[in-house]
Amino acid sequence: MFTGIVEEKGTLQSLTRNGRSLILTVAAKKILTDVHIGDSISVNGVCLTVTQFTSEQFSVDVMPETYEATNLKTLSTGSKVNLERAMHADGRFGGHFVSGHVDHVATIEKTWRDTIAKYVKITVPSDKSKYLAEKGSVTVDGTSLTVFHVENNSFTLSLIPETQEATILGGKEAGDTVNIEYDVLMKYMERLLTHQATKKNASEITEDKLKDLGFY
């Protein structure tokens, strides 16, 4: 489990491709202070497992499903990536619940500035906007952010200077892709309400159901 508070920007040292899988080696500093084999690290919002590490870098495997579902396959040597260690149970919770399981890749439609703020408008499938609410939370490339505005097939973010500096989002522009993870609480709520509605409908006695059961 993560919080979406990016700890540092790492640099991709190498990328080894094997069909639809990858091995990423990332240079970092802060997150390596207490790293162990098997630890979970969020790389651009994707929960990955440490397989090797030194005092200056760590390596992770990217499986075919993750390769297809995220934008990690578009990285190249030298790319900057957002990094966050899995949250300690006694840690401070600064963002929101982030699982590191990306829902889909989205494209930045446009960006613009107003004084110190950078606005980012992101296009999403129209059936996904139901998971978004103004002033609600969304994870973009592993960064916990507040939704500024929602439309049918897009939403807008307002990045403060700290976020622009501390994450890779400050350097992204129109046409760039980002990993999106919606608030897991919204998805659980949808699942619960759908299940309740289905169960309610299943318990209702209708003429058609009686016919199916042989009463007519």
- Intertermini distance: 54 Å
Helix content: 10-25%
**Which structural class do the helices and strands define?**
alpha+beta
| Spatial sequence of strands, sheet with the most strands | 1-2-5-4-3-6
CATH class of the largest domain: Mainly Beta
Order of helix and strand elements from N to C terminus? EEEEEHEEEEEEHEHH
Question: What percentage of amino acids are in beta strands?
Answer: 35-45%
Largest sheet: 6 strands, antiparallel, barrel
What is the count of helical runs?
Answer: 4
The tally of structural domains comes to 2
Number of strands: 12
Function: Catalyzes the dismutation of two molecules of 6,7-dimethyl-8-ribityllumazine, resulting in the formation of riboflavin and 5-amino-6-(D-ribitylamino)uracil.
Lumazine-binding repeats: 1-96, 97-193
Protein name: Riboflavin synthase
InterPro entries: ATP_synth_asu-like_sf (IPR023366), Lumazine-bd (IPR001783), Lumazine-bd_dom (IPR026017), Riboflavin_synthase-like_b-brl (IPR017938)
What does it look like?
One of its GO terms (molecular function) is riboflavin synthase activity. It catalyses: 2 6,7-dimethyl-8-(1-D-ribityl)lumazine + H(+) = 5-amino-6-(D-ribitylamino)uracil + riboflavin. Pathway: Cofactor biosynthesis; riboflavin biosynthesis; riboflavin from 2-hydroxy-3-oxobutyl phosphate and 5-amino-6-(D-ribitylamino)uracil: step 2/2. Catalyzes the dismutation of two molecules of 6,7-dimethyl-8-ribityllumazine, resulting in the formation of riboflavin and 5-amino-6-(D-ribitylamino)uracil. With 216 residues, the chain is α+β, with helices and mostly antiparallel strands. It has two domains: 78 residues, Elongation Factor Tu (Ef-tu), domain 3, CATH 2.40.30.20; 96 residues, Elongation Factor Tu (Ef-tu), domain 3, CATH 2.40.30.20. The strands form two sheets. It has a six-stranded antiparallel β-barrel with strand order 1-2-5-4-3-6. The chain has a six-stranded antiparallel barrel with strand order 7-8-11-10-9-12. Strand 3 and strand 4 form a beta hairpin. The mean pLDDT is 90.
